[in-house]
Amino acid sequence: MTTYGHWTAGAWRAPEKGHYPIVNPATEEVVGEAPESTPAEVADAVAAAQAARSGWSRTDPRERAAVLDRIADLLSERRGELVPLLQAETGATLCVAKSLQMTPAVDRFRRYARGALEPDVVPLAPSPVPAGPPAPGGLMNAAAVRRPVGVVGCITSYNFPVVNLAGKVGPALAMGNTVVAKPAPQDPLCCLELGPLFQEAGLPDGVFNVVTGSGADAGEALVAHPGVDMISFTGSTGVGRKIAETAGRSMKRTLMELGGKGAAIVLEDADDKVLESAIGAVGSVWSFHSGQFCTAPTRALVHRSLYERVVTGLQRYAGALTIGSPVDNSTIVGPLISAAQRDRVEAYIAGARDQGARIVAGGSRPAMRPGFYVAPTLIADATPEMAVAREEIFGPVVVVMPFDDEDEAVRIANGTSYGLYDYVFSADTGRAWALAARLHSGNVGINTVRRHPETPFGGFKKSGIGRDGGSFALHAYSELQSLVWPS
Ligand code: NAD
C-alpha cells in the first residue's frame, strides 16, 4: 500500500492536511492513501503550471509529439505494475482494466502525439478591402492560428480514471497548455502515478500537476483560481452546473462532458440479426463496468410488436452473466465503486418497484460479501415519467419501454434533460440515419455501441458543452488568433 503526496512542479509534496483512504470496491480493503489537497496546495500547483506555461507553449511541436509518444511507450511498458492498481481502485474486472482502461489511455497519448503535429494555421482567402479613413484600400491577407489556452484544470469522474484524464491531458499538452489535474476522489492513484511517469518521459516540471481530495474542496479551489484559464470537466450534470457558474464569473473557458440517459430505439423492421445486436448493445449496461459509463444505452425503447421478445431476450442475457470478484477471469459483472453508489442504485430500483414497474431480472443485492455489488437489473413496464426512466443511475440497470410509432419513440428518447448518446436499431440504415436527425443527442450509434475515435464527442442539452475526440479535442484546447497583413 502506497501513501501518495500531490504532484506539483515535478515532485511529490507531503499534504498539510494528511491523507484519506482509497478503498477497493470488491474487497473493501484500503488500496492506498491519497492526499487531501488544501486550497493553498491547489494554488501551489496552479502557480507551477503558470510558471511552466511560457516555456512549454513555445516548444517545437515535434518536441511535444516526442514527449507524448514517450508517455505512451512508458505507460505501455508499465502496464504490468499499473493495471493491478487501476483494477483495485476502480473495481473494474481484469478484462476491463487491461483492455478498456489502460489500452485506450496509451492510444490516446499516441493519438495526440500525432495531434501535436497537425496544422495549427487555417489559411484564409485574400479579401479586397475598400479605402476608408484609417487606411487606403487594398488586398488583405489573413490566417487563423490556434494558440494554447494557458493553464487547464482537468477535473474528472471516477469510472475510467486514466482514460478520461488521457483524453484531456493528451490534447491539452499537444496544443502547448499546462495542466493541473484533479482526478475523482474514489480512484485517483494511477492518475497520481502519471506525475513521475510524465517526468521520466521528458515533460518539463510544472507542465503537469496532480491534486486530489476526498470532497469537493480541491476541485472548487481549482475552478475558482484566477490563474486557471480553462476547466475541462467530466462528471455529473449537477456538479457541471456548479463549475460552469463559478467558471463563468472569471470567464474561464469550459469543456463540459456530463451525464447521459441513452436511448436504444429498436424499430419494428429489426430482423433477427439486428435484434441480436440490439440485445447485446443494451446488455452492455450490465456486462461493461457494471453500467458505470456515460454512454450506456440504459433505456431500451422497443416497438410494441417486438417488445415481449426483447424483454425475454434481455432477461436471458442478464441471467447468463456471472457476478463475482473482478479479479476472477470468469466474472462479467463486478462491483460498483462505493457503498454510497450501490445504495443510490438500489433506491432507484426500489422506487420503480413501488411505482408499479415490473422487475424482470435482478433487483436484489447479490449474496457476495464483501463488496458493493448490484445484480444486473431489468425493469419493464416503466413509464417515461418515472425517475428510473428519466434520471441517470450509473449502475447495471436497464429500463425497457414500448412505443407504437416513430413519433412516440422520438418523444420518449428526447424526453429527458440529457442528450449524450442514443442508438437506433433497424434493418434499414437509411431509415435509422433519418431518425437520428430527430434525436437531440450529441452522438447516435446505428446498429452498434462501438465508437469511432475520431468523431467529435460531447452532449446536447444538459449532457455537456463543447466537443473533444480526434482533432476536435485539439480545437477544444486552443484559442483562435486571427492574423491579418496587407499584400
Ligand atoms: P461527479 O460529478 O460527482 O464528480 C466528478 C468530479 O468533480 C470529481 O473529481 C469530483 O471530486 C469533482 N467535484 C465534485 N464537486 C465539485 C465542485 N463543486 N467543484 C469542482 N469539482 C467538483 O461525478 P462522478 O460520480 O465522479 O462520475 C459520474 C458522472 O460522470 C456521471 O454523471 C457520468 O455520466 C459522468 N461522466 C460523463 C462522461 C462524459 O464523457 N460525458 C464520462 C464519464 C462520466
TrEMBL record:
InterPro entries recorded: Ald_DH/histidinol_DH, Ald_DH_C, Ald_DH_N, Aldehyde_DH_dom
The domain of life is: Bacteria
Pinpoint the Aldehyde dehydrogenase domain residues: 12-482
Output the Pfam families linked to this UniProt entry: Aldedh
Keywords per UniProt: Oxidoreductase
The UniProt family comment states:
Belongs to the aldehyde dehydrogenase family.
Protein name in the entry: Aldehyde dehydrogenase family protein
